[in-house]
Amino acid sequence: MASAVNFHLAENSASNIIRRGALQFTKKNKTIQTPACLTYSLRGSVPHLVADNLKLLPIELVQISLEQFLEQKEPSSFKFPHGLHKYLHLENMLLFCDIRDPLKLSPVSFNTDKYLSVESHGGVRQVTPTLWAEALNIYRPDLIAAMADTVTDLEAKNKRIIRSVDRSLRWLDENLAKAKELDIPLFAHVLGHTNIEERARSARETAQRDVQGFVVNVLGLNHDQIPTLIRATVDNLPQDKPRLAYGLATPEKILEGISNGIDLFDGSYAYKATQKGRAITLNLWDPSFAHDFDPIDTSCGCNACSRPHTKAYIHHLLNAHEMLGPLLLMSHNIYQLDQFMAAI
Q1: What pTM was estimated for this model as a whole?
Q2: Which of 79, 98, 260, 294 has the highest Cβ tally under 10 A?
Q3: Which CATH superfamily includes the segment(s) 5-267?
Q4: Which stretches of 108-157 are DSSP H helices?
Q5: What positions does the domain tRNA-guanine(15) transglycosylase-like occupy (predicted)?
Q6: pLDDT at 12
Q7: Please, are residues 305 and 295 in contact by the beta-carbon 8 Å criterion?
Q8: Exposure string over 175-191, b if 16+ CB within 10 A, otherwise e
Q9: Cα angle at 183 between 180 and 186, to 5 degrees?
Q10: d(C-alpha 157, C-alpha 171), whole Å
Q11: What is d(CA 200, CA 268) in angstroms, rounded to the nearest whole number?
Q12: Could you tell me the residue ranges of all domains in the chain?
């Protein structure tokens, strides 16, 4: 059976660590040019935006965090029979479903060989391979990530790191069999935390499985360690499959990731900047913008800049706690992040 996802590197990228490529979703007849950012979501909604706003933005691949839907023992979303695209009114988008939120991988109670602990609005939940498969069958996303026993403690002992790699490989085999049965492409997490040898082992073992891509998580790790840890991972991965990174969200870190062989990024920077009242790096809470009647960026084609809405107006909206303020900033930040990636 042909894969629903194919990845092709540009000719001049095949032998380089810095890559350009195309991630093709054959069932949807859509292609994502890489490097690229996913669009971050909260409980399936792109923060601050509604459907009409999304139509005006270059949004193609939305990241969904499963833990945000497990507020009840029997999630209400499981009762909807028409899949996650219709449930979220994102029929024209591609959906990538992972269990944890890439913006805040909060430490929760311990994991076991039988389940993964996650944090939901209803408290800590236990995700088993059976529950993971049930969600996959009901939601039918375009792409899904396997279960992973991700270590969140920076002081974790090697014994804990080794156990997380072994456990995740066992889950991967079980998840992969179910994903193949349902014909949904799967990305595998490559683990190892701060242990270079375990990063390499996890990459080698995972690369032997028939997955469509890899997730490289460096969320919360010390910045000085990240390039070495990424290279220990990607040096042991095949060239012809895409790599998605968590924890490289800012423009500077995205460039660092690209220079170390990463193709896809979690895209949470647009949301984090918006929450701080920033248009990328411009802090519109600053009182100096109270009488600035220019748009944020005269060359920007987003809804906030092309109307145009002035910096003074957005500054006023923020101070008045009007919903339109974050809406305009989120629109601008998503648009600018897309333009940034396209220009690389």
Answers
A1: 0.94
A2: 98
A3: Queuine tRNA-ribosyltransferase-like (3.20.20.105)
A4: 129-139
A5: 18-344
A6: 78
A7: yes
A8: bbebbeeeebbbbbbbb
A9: 65
A10: 21
A11: 27
A12: 5-267, 281-344
